[in-house]
Protein backbone atom coordinates (compact mmCIF):
# COMPACT_ATOMS: atom_id res chain seq x y z
CA UNK A 1 0.00 0.00 0.00
CA UNK A 2 1.17 3.56 -0.29
CA UNK A 3 0.30 6.98 -1.58
CA UNK A 4 -1.84 5.34 -4.24
CA UNK A 5 -5.06 4.16 -2.68
CA UNK A 6 -5.38 0.40 -2.89
CA UNK A 7 -7.92 -2.13 -1.69
CA UNK A 8 -6.71 -4.07 1.29
CA UNK A 9 -7.80 -7.57 2.25
CA UNK A 10 -6.72 -10.31 4.57
CA UNK A 11 -3.90 -12.50 3.34
CA UNK A 12 -2.62 -15.28 5.52
CA UNK A 13 1.14 -15.26 4.97
CA UNK A 14 2.79 -17.93 7.15
CA UNK A 15 4.81 -16.33 9.93
CA UNK A 16 4.67 -12.95 8.20
CA UNK A 17 1.63 -10.87 9.07
CA UNK A 18 -2.08 -11.48 9.53
CA UNK A 19 -3.27 -7.97 8.72
CA UNK A 20 -1.62 -7.46 5.35
CA UNK A 21 -1.97 -4.74 2.77
CA UNK A 22 -4.06 -4.53 -0.32
CA UNK A 23 -8.23 -10.98 -5.38
CA UNK A 24 -7.77 -13.47 -9.31
CA UNK A 25 -6.71 -10.82 -11.85
CA UNK A 26 -9.48 -8.48 -12.86
CA UNK A 27 -11.65 -9.93 -15.63
CA UNK A 28 -11.49 -8.31 -19.02
CA UNK A 29 -14.34 -5.90 -19.66
CA UNK A 30 -16.32 -6.34 -22.84
CA UNK A 31 -16.43 -3.35 -25.16
CA UNK A 32 -19.84 -1.79 -25.71
CA UNK A 33 -21.07 -2.36 -29.22
CA UNK A 34 -20.78 0.75 -31.33
CA UNK A 35 -19.03 2.71 -28.59
CA UNK A 36 -15.32 2.96 -27.86
CA UNK A 37 -14.27 1.58 -24.52
CA UNK A 38 -13.67 4.36 -22.01
CA UNK A 39 -10.39 4.18 -20.08
CA UNK A 40 -10.75 2.93 -16.52
CA UNK A 41 -10.12 5.72 -14.06
CA UNK A 42 -7.57 4.79 -11.44
CA UNK A 43 -7.94 6.07 -7.92
CA UNK A 44 -4.75 7.53 -6.53
CA UNK A 45 -4.35 9.04 -3.10
CA UNK A 46 -3.69 12.74 -2.67
CA UNK A 47 0.02 13.52 -2.34
CA UNK A 48 1.16 12.91 1.22
CA UNK A 49 4.18 14.06 3.13
CA UNK A 50 6.11 12.82 6.13
CA UNK A 51 4.32 10.18 8.18
CA UNK A 52 0.82 11.13 7.09
CA UNK A 53 -1.67 8.29 7.21
CA UNK A 54 -4.16 7.93 4.39
CA UNK A 55 -7.62 7.98 6.06
CA UNK A 56 -9.13 5.84 3.29
CA UNK A 57 -6.94 2.79 3.79
CA UNK A 58 -5.08 3.64 7.03
CA UNK A 59 -1.71 3.26 5.30
CA UNK A 60 1.32 5.56 5.08
CA UNK A 61 2.59 6.89 1.72
CA UNK A 62 3.57 4.33 -0.90
CA UNK A 63 7.14 3.11 -0.98
CA UNK A 64 8.25 1.68 -4.32
CA UNK A 65 11.95 1.74 -3.44
CA UNK A 66 13.81 -1.54 -2.81
CA UNK A 67 14.74 -2.18 0.81
CA UNK A 68 18.51 -1.82 1.57
CA UNK A 69 19.11 -5.56 2.10
CA UNK A 70 16.45 -6.89 -0.29
CA UNK A 71 17.66 -10.23 -1.79
CA UNK A 72 16.02 -9.80 -5.22
CA UNK A 73 14.28 -7.18 -7.35
CA UNK A 74 10.50 -6.94 -7.25
CA UNK A 75 8.08 -5.50 -9.83
CA UNK A 76 6.51 -2.11 -9.17
CA UNK A 77 3.59 -2.54 -11.57
CA UNK A 78 0.15 -2.26 -9.96
CA UNK A 79 -3.15 -3.88 -10.91
CA UNK A 80 -6.38 -1.91 -11.13
CA UNK A 81 -9.18 -3.63 -9.21
CA UNK A 82 -12.82 -4.00 -10.24
CA UNK A 83 -13.87 -2.25 -7.02
CA UNK A 84 -15.27 1.26 -7.61
CA UNK A 85 -14.23 3.97 -5.22
CA UNK A 86 -16.48 6.76 -4.01
CA UNK A 87 -14.71 10.04 -4.80
CA UNK A 88 -15.35 13.26 -2.85
CA UNK A 89 -16.57 15.02 -6.01
CA UNK A 90 -19.10 12.25 -6.74
CA UNK A 91 -17.15 10.69 -9.60
CA UNK A 92 -16.16 7.03 -9.70
CA UNK A 93 -12.66 5.66 -10.03
CA UNK A 94 -11.23 2.26 -9.18
CA UNK A 95 -9.06 1.17 -6.30
CA UNK A 96 -5.53 0.09 -7.16
CA UNK A 97 -3.75 -2.89 -5.61
CA UNK A 98 -0.18 -2.63 -4.32
CA UNK A 99 2.82 -3.74 -6.29
CA UNK A 100 5.01 -6.58 -5.07
CA UNK A 101 7.59 -4.01 -3.96
CA UNK A 102 5.00 -2.06 -1.97
CA UNK A 103 3.79 -5.25 -0.32
CA UNK A 104 7.34 -6.23 0.62
CA UNK A 105 8.00 -2.82 2.17
CA UNK A 106 4.68 -2.94 4.02
CA UNK A 107 5.60 -6.30 5.56
CA UNK A 108 8.97 -4.94 6.66
CA UNK A 109 7.27 -1.91 8.18
CA UNK A 110 5.05 -4.20 10.25
CA UNK A 111 7.99 -6.07 11.72
CA UNK A 112 8.55 -8.96 9.30
CA UNK A 113 12.16 -9.85 8.47
CA UNK A 114 12.80 -11.79 5.28
CA UNK A 115 15.93 -13.45 6.69
CA UNK A 116 13.68 -15.38 9.10
CA UNK A 117 11.78 -16.93 6.18
CA UNK A 118 12.74 -19.06 3.19
CA UNK A 119 10.99 -16.71 0.76
CA UNK A 120 11.59 -16.58 -2.99
CA UNK A 121 10.72 -14.04 -5.66
CA UNK A 122 7.88 -16.28 -6.94
CA UNK A 123 6.38 -16.29 -3.44
CA UNK A 124 5.76 -12.54 -3.60
CA UNK A 125 3.94 -12.95 -6.91
CA UNK A 126 1.69 -15.60 -5.35
CA UNK A 127 1.10 -13.50 -2.23
CA UNK A 128 -0.08 -10.54 -4.32
CA UNK A 129 -2.43 -12.78 -6.35
CA UNK A 130 -3.89 -14.28 -3.18
CA UNK A 131 -4.26 -10.85 -1.66
CA UNK A 132 -6.02 -9.41 -4.70
CA UNK A 133 -8.27 -12.47 -5.03
CA UNK A 134 -9.45 -11.99 -1.46
CA UNK A 135 -10.39 -8.39 -2.22
CA UNK A 136 -12.38 -9.26 -5.33
CA UNK A 137 -14.12 -12.08 -3.49
CA UNK A 138 -15.01 -9.76 -0.60
CA UNK A 139 -16.46 -7.15 -2.95
CA UNK A 140 -18.63 -9.76 -4.68
CA UNK A 141 -20.00 -10.78 -1.28
CA UNK A 142 -20.70 -7.14 -0.43
CA UNK A 143 -22.57 -6.76 -3.72
CA UNK A 144 -24.85 -9.67 -2.80
CA UNK A 145 -25.98 -7.73 0.26
CA UNK A 146 -26.23 -4.49 -1.70
CA UNK A 147 -28.59 -6.24 -4.13
CA UNK A 148 -31.23 -5.85 -1.41
CA UNK A 149 -31.06 -2.10 -2.10
CA UNK A 150 -30.73 -2.19 -5.90
CA UNK A 151 -33.80 0.02 -6.38
CA UNK A 152 -32.45 2.51 -3.89
CA UNK A 153 -28.91 2.52 -5.26
CA UNK A 154 -27.67 0.75 -8.36
CA UNK A 155 -23.99 1.65 -8.04
CA UNK A 156 -22.60 1.26 -4.51
CA UNK A 157 -18.92 2.11 -4.16
CA UNK A 158 -16.21 1.38 -1.62
CA UNK A 159 -15.38 4.52 0.33
CA UNK A 160 -12.76 3.38 2.82
CA UNK A 161 -11.50 0.34 4.74
CA UNK A 162 -9.26 -0.67 7.59
CA UNK A 163 -7.75 -3.82 9.07
CA UNK A 164 -8.63 -4.96 12.58
CA UNK A 165 -6.80 -8.28 12.85
CA UNK A 166 -6.62 -8.19 16.66
CA UNK A 167 -10.18 -6.94 17.20
CA UNK A 168 -12.36 -10.02 16.84
CA UNK A 169 -15.98 -9.40 15.94
CA UNK A 170 -18.67 -10.58 18.41
CA UNK A 171 -19.75 -13.31 15.97
CA UNK A 172 -16.18 -14.58 15.62
CA UNK A 173 -15.83 -14.73 19.41
CA UNK A 174 -19.12 -16.60 19.82
CA UNK A 175 -18.05 -19.09 17.15
CA UNK A 176 -14.76 -19.64 18.98
CA UNK A 177 -16.65 -20.37 22.22
CA UNK A 178 -18.51 -23.08 20.28
CA UNK A 179 -15.24 -24.67 19.24
CA UNK A 180 -14.64 -23.06 15.85
CA UNK A 181 -11.36 -21.41 14.90
CA UNK A 182 -10.91 -17.66 15.09
CA UNK A 183 -10.45 -15.72 11.85
CA UNK A 184 -6.88 -14.89 10.86
CA UNK A 185 -7.91 -11.37 9.86
CA UNK A 186 -10.76 -8.89 10.00
CA UNK A 187 -11.52 -5.81 7.92
CA UNK A 188 -14.20 -3.17 8.14
CA UNK A 189 -15.29 -1.69 4.81
CA UNK A 190 -17.33 1.50 4.46
CA UNK A 191 -19.57 1.37 1.39
CA UNK A 192 -21.13 4.49 -0.10
CA UNK A 193 -24.71 3.54 -0.93
CA UNK A 194 -25.51 6.60 -3.04
CA UNK A 195 -24.70 9.02 -0.26
CA UNK A 196 -25.31 6.73 2.72
CA UNK A 197 -22.35 5.17 4.53
CA UNK A 198 -22.83 1.47 5.31
CA UNK A 199 -20.25 -0.46 7.33
CA UNK A 200 -19.47 -4.09 6.52
CA UNK A 201 -17.54 -6.50 8.73
CA UNK A 202 -15.39 -9.11 6.95
CA UNK A 203 -13.89 -12.04 8.85
CA UNK A 204 -11.27 -14.11 7.00
CA UNK A 205 -10.96 -17.82 7.87
CA UNK A 206 -8.39 -20.33 6.67
CA UNK A 207 -9.96 -22.37 3.88
CA UNK A 208 -7.07 -24.78 3.39
CA UNK A 209 -5.50 -25.34 -0.01
CA UNK A 210 -5.23 -22.49 -2.53
CA UNK A 211 -7.31 -23.13 -5.66
CA UNK A 212 -6.42 -22.26 -9.25
CA UNK A 213 -7.95 -18.80 -8.79
CA UNK A 214 -5.64 -18.09 -5.85
CA UNK A 215 -8.55 -18.23 -3.43
CA UNK A 216 -8.22 -20.03 -0.14
CA UNK A 217 -9.88 -17.83 2.47
CA UNK A 218 -13.45 -18.40 3.67
CA UNK A 219 -15.07 -15.00 3.99
CA UNK A 220 -17.85 -14.09 6.42
CA UNK A 221 -19.16 -10.80 5.03
CA UNK A 222 -22.14 -9.01 6.57
CA UNK A 223 -23.43 -5.52 7.40
CA UNK A 224 -22.37 -4.34 10.84
CA UNK A 225 -25.06 -4.29 13.51
CA UNK A 226 -24.80 -0.54 13.96
CA UNK A 227 -28.10 0.53 12.38
CA UNK A 228 -31.69 -0.72 12.26
CA UNK A 229 -31.47 -1.02 8.46
CA UNK A 230 -28.45 -3.32 8.71
CA UNK A 231 -30.13 -5.43 11.38
CA UNK A 232 -33.25 -5.71 9.20
CA UNK A 233 -31.15 -6.79 6.19
CA UNK A 234 -29.50 -9.54 8.23
CA UNK A 235 -32.89 -10.71 9.53
CA UNK A 236 -34.28 -10.86 5.98
CA UNK A 237 -31.30 -12.85 4.72
CA UNK A 238 -31.48 -15.20 7.71
CA UNK A 239 -35.18 -15.84 6.95
CA UNK A 240 -34.48 -16.40 3.24
CA UNK A 241 -31.71 -18.88 4.00
CA UNK A 242 -33.86 -20.74 6.51
CA UNK A 243 -36.80 -20.86 4.08
CA UNK A 244 -34.58 -22.05 1.22
CA UNK A 245 -33.04 -24.77 3.36
CA UNK A 246 -36.47 -25.84 4.65
CA UNK A 247 -37.95 -26.04 1.14
CA UNK A 248 -34.87 -27.86 -0.10
CA UNK A 249 -35.07 -30.44 2.68
CA UNK A 250 -38.77 -31.05 1.95
CA UNK A 251 -38.07 -31.61 -1.75
CA UNK A 252 -35.28 -34.05 -0.88
CA UNK A 253 -37.63 -35.94 1.45
CA UNK A 254 -40.28 -36.25 -1.30
CA UNK A 255 -37.72 -37.54 -3.79
CA UNK A 256 -36.46 -40.20 -1.41
CA UNK A 257 -39.96 -41.42 -0.48
Structural class: alpha+beta
Helices, by number, come to: 4
Question: Going across the major beta sheet, what is the strand order?
Answer: 3-4-5-6
Broad shape: globular
Quantity of strands, as a count: 6
Low-confidence stretches: 1-9, 12-36, 43-51
Q: How confident is the prediction overall: mean pLDDT?
A: 77
Most strands sheet: 4 strands, antiparallel
Helicity range of the residues?
A: 25-40%
Task: List the topology elements.
Elements: E1 80-86, E2 92-96, H1 100-109, H2 121-146, E3 157-163, H3 170-177, E4 185-193, E5 196-206, E6 217-223, H4 228-256
Summarize this, please?
The chain is of the alpha+beta class and 257 residues long. The chain has 4 helices and 6 strands; from the N terminus they run E-E-H-H-E-H-E-E-E-H. InterPro entries: Holocyt_c/c1_synthase.
Description of the structure:
This protein has 257 residues and is an alpha+beta fold. Helices cover 28% and strands 18% of the residues. The protein is built from 4 helices and 6 strands; from the N terminus they run ββααβαβββα. It has helices at 100-109, 121-146, 170-177, 228-256, and strands at residues 80-86, 92-96, 157-163, 185-193, 196-206, 217-223. A 4-stranded antiparallel β-sheet has the order 3-4-5-6. The protein has a two-stranded antiparallel sheet with strand order 1-2. β4 and β5 (196-206) form a beta hairpin. It is globular and about 55 Å long.
Sum up the structure in keywords.
257 residues; alpha+beta; four-stranded antiparallel beta sheet; two-stranded antiparallel sheet; 28% helix
